[in-house]
Specification:
Blueprint: H1 35-45, E1 50-54, H2 66-72, H3 79-88, H4 102-113, H5 118-132, H6 145-155, E2 160-164, H7 166-178, E3 183-187, H8 200-211, E4 216-222, H9 229-241, E5 249-253, H10 255-258, H11 264-300, H12 304-311, H13 314-317, H14 322-344, H15 346-359, H16 370-384, E6 385-387, H17 388-393, E7 402-409, H18 413-416, E8 436-446, H19 449-452, E9 466-473, E10 491-494, E11 505-508, E12 513-516, H20 517-525, E13 530-534, H21 545-568, H22 577-586, E14 596-599, E15 604-615, H23 619-632
Parallel strand pairs: 1-2, 1-3, 3-4, 4-5
Antiparallel strand pairs: 6-15, 7-8, 7-15, 8-9, 9-11, 9-12, 10-11, 13-15, 14-15
């Protein structure tokens, strides 16, 4: 709504701008999050049959078996485990004798270890690993060790889980791609330990995006980014680098595994969902692209008789801009056709079902949600508010839900004419260069649409001179506004009012103010949206016919007020006479929020108000209904029983 967080009230100045898109605090105690169960559920719902982890951590390491021997020395192996090891190392005779002391067994394994090939060593590691867990083997002290152990713990239990070095992956790549299994593959980024480059993982992903089947999902699992927005920025950079479908891969920080596993399932979910989300976007784009052309064609086939009727009549009288009506017709054609095409697209249905099913998997709150909430707030704000740009440039008539900013002038009427003033600009708007002081205060227009309508003579049929507005204020008590409306009869919640913070405001229906319609009408007819008019100002472009007459009436009124004001020479009067005369002649005497200045040197009237936006439907109708409920509520409690003692 606003480009920066100006204070709504002086006591709420800090609350409006400190938190970006705040979230209502959840005071309930949530159960502990089970990252392993969530990961397994996600893989099951996404029908992933196999997980492959490619990391130089799994490369063959030069060792003398001490780590394996240390694991064997823990005496946690069963007789069946020793029998399995004996089959891998058949030349070790003592393994077949269960009465052999452990020290002798370890000595014999140590002697034979150096002669084992990598396949035999890996087989022994697997036997020990299956019994003691991943922490029982491997080279300690490596930075990848906690992440590798956590990854195995999260993903290995529910489906086929393969770990591969870069060398092994390249050797088996073709066979793995060809076997048809739905696969999630996670690459390390830096394979320098295997003699490859620090970006070898990126290079493998780039090629895999070209070659992998549609049922493969790809992740870059790396220590080189932190588990925050660095993942997003890295993904964006790589997306531009890869000339392929970048929705099929995602960047995941290993810090999510080595520090805490809670954040990994969220990134796993995004990795599994990214292609489905891309297909939904593509399906919508394809449907819209074709349908807009069809809609425009349908609008073009409307005969002149029908089109003329649609663009004139009551709509013209009520101040509807002609192209807005055409857009309304084209939108009606488009929405119907787009929905029909989306319903008929099987890919859209399948993708939507996957998104729905995976979204049901409960996740902990994101560690760094600000960026996501900010982007969503910017989208959602468009649903609530129209910006001032097209309202101002096209001089849209007043409407319930119009939002205005009020601010005090630095100069008072009794000092105003004593200031040196420049010449008015060509447009005549803002030429006084009036200094403003204090915070802006925001209010929203509350009136029946028919009461605001300008008739063909440039006047309102009801002779309305004043209209009521309600102030917009930040909620007190730490309350955060997340939804429109709210349950209190004397207020109405509006979320996302401030653009930068996403903070919401309350419409205080019980604190209404009345302001002269002349001030707000000038905002409509001003190229800057300000309540300003010169007695000699030219008619702006794009003004609707009825409002052209309104412009003439207002200009006549401005000239008359300036002449009368000058005849009294109030600026020569002592005290605050000029202030009182100005308030009386501009209609601001009853409004403590609105100030006005009359300029004799410029033959102009300037109100301290400007239109900054408009609440969209259906929210403005809901606001009007809430106002009506408030106006018609009982003035007292008719019950004979005191509620406090009931």
């Amino acid at each position: 709504m606003l480009t920066h967080d100006q204070s709504v009230t002086s006591d709420a100045a800090t609350s409006a701008g400190l938190t970006r898109v705040p979230v209502q605090a959840d005071m309930s105690v949530a159960p502990a999050f089970d990252a392993k169960a969530a990961s397994a559920e996600l893989l099951e719902l996404a029908a992933v049959e196999r997980v492959i982890c490619v990391d130089d951590w799994y490369a063959a390491k030069e060792d003398d078996g001490e780590n394996i021997l240390a694991a064997l020395a823990e005496e946690a192996l069963l007789v069946s485990d020793w029998e399995k090891i004996a089959k891998v190392i058949p030349g070790v005779a003592l393994l077949k004798d269960s009465s052999t002391p452990l020290e002798l067994l370890l000595d014999e394994v140590r002697d034979r270890w150096v002669s084992l090939d990598e396949h035999e060593r890996e087989s022994v590691r697997k036997i020990v690993d299956d019994r003691l867990g991943p922490d029982g083997v491997g080279l300690p002290g490596e930075e990848d060790e906690p992440a590798a152990a956590c990854l195995r713990e999260l993903l290995a239990g529910s489906r086929e889980f393969l770990t591969r070095s870069l060398y092994d992956w390249r050797r088996q790549r073709a066979a793995l791609l060809a076997d048809g299994k739905s696969t999630l593959i996670l690459f390390d980024r830096d394979f320098s330990r295997e003699g490859a480059s620090e970006t070898a993982g990126e290079e493998e992903i780039s090629g895999l995006l070209q070659d992998a089947p549609d049922n493969w999902r790809i992740g870059l699992l790396t220590h080189t980014v932190s588990p925050d927005d660095a993942e997003v920025e890295t993904w964006k950079a790589l997306s531009q680098q890869f000339e392929a479908d970048s929705s099929r891969f995602l960047v995941i920080a290993k810090g999510r595994l080595s520090v805490s596993s809670d954040g990994f399932p969220r990134m796993l979910k995004l990795t599994l969902l990214a292609p489905a989300l891309e297909r939904l976007q593509g399906g919508l784009a394809e449907a819209v692209n074709g349908t807009w052309a069809e809609a425009i064609d349908k609008v073009g086939r409307i005969d002149p008789y029908t089109l003329e009727a649609a663009l004139s009549g009551d709509r013209l009288t009520d101040g509807t801009w002609g192209p807005e009506t055409l857009l309304r017709i084209a939108t009606a054609f488009t929405q119907d056709s787009v929905r029909a095409k989306l319903r008929a697209d099987r890919t859209v249905h399948v993708s939507s079902e996957l998104v729905t099913s995976l979204s049901r998997v409960k996740m902990p709150s994101a560690a760094n949600p600000d960026r996501v909430r900010q982007e969503l707030a910017e989208i959602e704000r468009l649903e609530y508010f129209e910006s001032a740009d097209h309202l101002t440039e096209l001089h849209f008539p007043l409407e319930v839900g119009d939002v205005f900013a009020f601010q005090k002038f630095a100069e008072k009427p009794h000092k105003f004419e004593q200031q040196r003033m420049g010449s008015p600009s060509v447009s005549g708007i803002g030429s006084l260069n009036l200094r403003r002081i204090g915070d802006e205060h925001y209010m929203i227009l509350l009136a029946q649409p028919c009461d605001l309508a300008i008739r063909a003579d440039g006047k309102r049929g009801n002779g309305l001179e004043y209209v009521r507005l309600a102030p917009l204020k930040s909620p007190g008590g730490g309350r955060v506004i997340t939804h429109p409306g709210g349950g209190v009869a004397t207020s109405f919640d509006l979320p996302f009012f401030f653009e930068e913070s996403g903070a919401g405001v309350e419409v205080k229906l019980s604190q209404q103010h009345y302001v002269p319609l002349t001030a707000l009408d000038m905002c409509v007819l001003s190229p800057t949206g300000e309540g300003f008019m010169l007695a000699t100002q030219e008619m702006p472009d794009h003004v609707l016919p009825n409002w052209q007459e309104r412009f003439k009436n207002l200009q006549t009124w401005v000239a008359k007020q300036v002449t009368a004001y000058g005849a009294m020479e109030p600026h020569r009067m002592p005290g605050k006479a000029a202030d009182q005369i100005t308030e009386a002649m501009t209609g601001t005497v009853a409004s403590n929020r609105l100030e006005a200045l009359i300029s004799l040197s410029h033959s102009a009237i300037n109100y301290g108000v400007r239109r900054i936006g408009r609440l969209r439907e259906p929210y403005r109708s809901a606001l009007l209904s809430r106002m009506a409920q408030r106006d018609s509520r009982d003035a007292f409690d008719p019950s004979l029983i005191d509620k406090n003692k009931a």
